[in-house]
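your task:
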Amino acid sequence: MIEVGQVTAVVGVEITIKANENSSLETHFYRGQAFKGVSIREYITVDHGFREVVCKVEGEYLDESHTEGKGPNLQYVRRLKVRPIGYFEDEKFFDGIKFLPKIGDPAKLMSERKVEKIFERTVSDGFKIGSLMKEDLPISLPWQKIFNSHLGIFGNTGSGKSNTLTKLFTVLFENKFDTLADISQFVFLDFNGEYTGEQLVDSGKKTVLRLKTRAAGGDQFHLAESQFWDVETLGILFQATANTQKPFLRRIVDDRKRFSVNVNSLTAYVKSIFRRVLNSEHPSAEALELLKSLSRHLGIGDELAEALNKVGYHRNNQSFYFDSVRGSYFGVGNSTYDDHFGALVDAIEFEAPDGFRELQIRAELKLISDLLYGSVQYEHIQPLMRRIEALMGDFTKVIAIRQGDEEEGPVTVISLRECNQEIKKILPILIAKHYYEEHKRRVSSPPDRTMHLVIDEAHNILSQQSNREAESWKDYRLELFEEIIKEGRKFGAFMTLASQRPADISPTVVSQLHNYFIHRLVNDRDLTLLENTISTLDSISRSQIPSLPQGACVVTGTTFDIPMLLQVDKLPKEQEPDSSDVDLVDLWG
C-alpha cells in the first residue's frame, strides 16, 4: 500500500492529515495495481490497529504556519480534511463511524478494486446501469433492494432523469421479466407519451393505452362496474365536496343497490318522477328545469319534450301552467296533467343507459326527488350536476365501464399526452386508486405479489400549490398518494416518482421515499428540500448537484451505504424515451 500522510488532528469526526510530498500525483502504480491520487471525493484508508478506517477527502489546504525545508526547497505543509465513512475488517467493508483513527496513524491510498468493495456492487448479477463518474468503475445496483422501496428520480429538464428511469426498468425487465410476469404489475403514468414505443420492454410484452380527449379513436381505461358505482370513485371523477355533494352521490349509489338496476325499474322511476313533479302540491321551478333536462338526456320522444317546453311556472300563484292557456294549472283536482301528459308519460320507453349516462340520469332523478321532499339545497348540488354534464363527454372517451374482472399484463403504459388538462389532473388519481385497491384486495399477508406505480412528471398531480382546485379536493388528492407511499410497502405496493421540481411535490411524499437518483438541480428551493429530507446526502454530494453533467446523478438512500456519483449509461436510440432535445442543425439545415 502507498502511504500518503499521517493523522495530525482528530476533532469530533473531522480528521486532519499531513500529506506527504508524493501525494499530489494524479495516479500511482504499485505492484501492477492503479491507485487514484489524493483529491476531493477520493477515498483513503487510515490504519487503526488491525482495521482500516475508510475516509472520504472533503478538502485540502496549505498550512502556512508550518514549512518544510530551507531556501529554494522551502515548502508549505499540505493538509487534508477527511471524514470517516466506515471501515474494513477481514477484507470486508462495514459502513458507519464505529472507529476513529489516532494522531500518528498512517494514511494510505486505496486500489480501484478496494474502492469497488466499498460499494459492494459487482457486475456479476447483470444489473449494471452505469459507472462511478470519478473512478469510472462499473456499478451494478442491488435490484432486490431498489425495487422493494419507493424511488425518487429528480432533475431539471435535459439532465437525463428520463433516461435513468427508463434504464432502471429496462435492465430489470431484460433480466427478470419471465420471473416477475405472473406476480408483479408495473403501471407507468406517462404524461408526455415518452414510453409508448419500444421503450422499457418489447411492445408485445406490454399494454399501451393512448388516451385521447382532443380527438376520437383513442384507447379507454377499463373500470369494473362495481368500482365505478363507488362513492369514492365518483367523488374523484367529479371533485365532489365532502359535506354536501359526496352524501348526495352516496344516496344515488345506495338507491341503485337497493332497487333493481334493470331498465324496467328505471322506467318506472322516471314515470313516477314526471307525475310527482307536475302534480306536486308545492311546485318547484328548479325541479321543472331538471325534468326538461332529464327528458333530453333520456331521448324519449319529441312530442313529450315539446309538451314539457310549454309548461311554465307562475311565481305569484306558485303553480305550473300549460301553454299560457287560462285556467290550465296543474295540481290536485285539475285534469291538466291527464289531458296533456298522462298518455305520453305512460308510453315512455328508452334503452338501458350505461356508465356515465346512467349516472347523469340517476343524479337528475335523485335531485328532483330530494327537491320535492325539501331535503336538499339546490344551490349546493347544482355545481356537481354541471361538472357531471361538462366532464361526461371527455370521460366517455377515456373510460369504459366493463362487467366483471379483466386480466391485465405485467406492464401497462397509460399515455395522457393527448388529454386535456382537466383529465390529466383527475384521471391519474382514479388510476392510482384503482390499481392500489385491486392490489390490496388480491394480495395476501405477507405479500405474495407486488404492484409498482411509476409516475413521470409527478409534480403534475402531487403539487401542494394549485389555485385551480378547492382545498378539500386538493387534500383528498394528496391524502390518496400519501396513503400509498406511507402504507403501501406493507402490501407490496411501491411508487417511483420522476420530477423536474421536487419542491413542488408534497414534502410528506418526498420524505417517505427510500432511495433517490438526483440529477442536476439548480433551484434553491429544490436543493433545500433535498438537504432537509435526505439524511444520507452529504455536503460534498449536495454541492455537486447544480453542476452535474447530463446523465450523471447522485445516488443515495437507505439501500446505499454512502452516496455515489453515478454516470448512467445512455440507452440505444430505439429504447430511449421520446424526450430528446431538438436538433436545430438537422431541423434548420
Summary: The chain has a mean pLDDT of 80.
